[in-house]
Amino acid sequence: MQQRVVVLGSTGSIGQSTLDVIARHPARYRVYALAALRQIDLLENQIDRFKPAVVVVVDPAAAEQLQARLTAKGSKVQVQTGAEALVSLVRTPEIDTVMAAIVGAAGLPSALAAAEAGKRVLLANKEALVMAGPVFMEAVRRSGALLLPIDSEHNAIFQSLPANYAANPEANGVSHIVLTASGGPFRGYKKEQLTEVTPEQAVSHPKWSMGPKISVDSASLMNKGLEVIEAHFLFGLPAEKIKVVVHPQSTIHSLVQYVDGSVIAELGEPDMRTPIAHALAWPERIQSGVSLLDLVSCVQFDFAEPDLEAFPCLSLAFEALKRGGSAPAVLNAANEVAVAAFLDRKIKFLAIPEVIRQTLAEISDYPLTDLDSVLDVDRRARHYAQALVDGTP
Ligand code: NAD
Ligand code: MG
């Protein structure tokens, strides 16, 4: 049967890769809806090509502009607007699959609604799990949603675990997991060399082509920190059983080490269409457009410990995970504020971990019981981090 898919964040890097995979399999997938913040030129092309029934443009002015263009062309598509439209969209019974590829905290309500509605949830938006891990996983359990990780490391771990793993490492002989990190554009830099790095340098990733926020996260190693927290919730492993190793070639996407000495990993070209195709088709396999790995051309695999002195964001994430409760949500909120300020040239690169450290120290722990409690702590942390950025704590 044809899967009806909603692509949230269709104009982004993951959204475009998703549509690229879907376009290769018109009989299997129908794009029921597209959603984005405002990039209406690209969205208009996507609408012409995929003919969705529904389009959401969260920004009202952009939505109005797009509606006018579509109406002038004689199109019957209704453009909806506002963040609430995303939530009602993913709840519609007409859809089976939700690609959650909005960046940052803005993606949480719709990703969570998809989990609550029992959909097949393709989760790229790692921030949703970092902020709301317990609430999100509980929603998945209750509704019976199928949660498939898109983040390449987590998708690799998912593929390297037994099919009936059920978040139970002991029963499956899992010793620990190893998340690989490319090291980003500043791999090998010492702290002194990071003082004057620019947003342009930070977003030019050597291996992966991604949106600006995750590119800065990769440069600071916060991306790996967020992924450690994401892995904790997805796979039921404590912080001590999640390791990080720098692997600049990005060919091994992550590994599972078993108690008997076996190591199972997933390898491939660094192209997000592989995990996207995996999650779209699971448990089957489909073509993704990614060329097959040529082992002979993989000259060598390097591995190194991450430099926590130069890249303290990774340690901050481990600390937040160990503290638990709302600490990961605070970490995420402070990071989003700090990264936006860095991209706006309001703060230096090395101020990013400082803003996060101080926000984590200031905002006390808070139980996360539902979406509102998560959004509440997110707001408080953002407010404090913004004041730090503006120099008026
Ligand atoms: P991107 O910046 O390229 O795209 C973001 C998308 O989100 C765009 O379509 C944008 O319109 C939409 N968006 C932004 N703010 C919004 C809002 N307030 N409301 C509605 N839509 C909004 O980002 P990306 O690189 O595609 O990353 C998307 C998510 O996937 C992130 O959470 C990222 O961490 C994760 N991810 C990305 C990659 C990658 O290779 N790009 C890999 C792993 C995980
Ligand atoms: Mg990743």
Notes on the protein architecture:
This protein has 393 residues and is of the alpha/beta class. The protein has 15 helices and 11 strands. It has helices at residues 13-23, 40-50, 60-72, 83-91, 108-116, 126-143, 152-160, 199-203, 212-220, 222-235, 273-281, 313-323, 327-343, 351-362, 371-389, and strands at 3-8, 29-36, 54-57, 78-81, 97-100, 120-123, 146-149, 174-181, 242-246, 252-258, 263-267. Strands 4-3-2-1-5-6-7 form a 7-stranded parallel sheet, with helices on both faces. Strand 2, helix 2 (40-50) and strand 3 (54-57) form a beta-alpha-beta unit. The relative contact order is 0.11. The site of magnesium ion has 4 residues, from helix 7.
Small molecules bound: nicotinamide-adenine-dinucleotide, magnesium ion
> What kind of oligomer do you see?
single chain
Q: How would you characterize the largest beta sheet?
A: 7 strands, parallel
Distance between the termini: 55 Å
Shape, per Cα inertia axes: globular
SSE string, helices as H and strands as E: EHEHEHEHEHEHEHEHHHEEEHHHHH
Evaluate the radius of gyration.
20 Å
Mean pLDDT: 97
Strand content: 15-25%
Q: How are the strands of the largest sheet arranged?
A: 4-3-2-1-5-6-7
Count of helical stretches: 15
Indicate the percent of residues in helices.
40-55%
Number of strands: 11
Unreliable spans: none
Class by SSE composition: alpha/beta
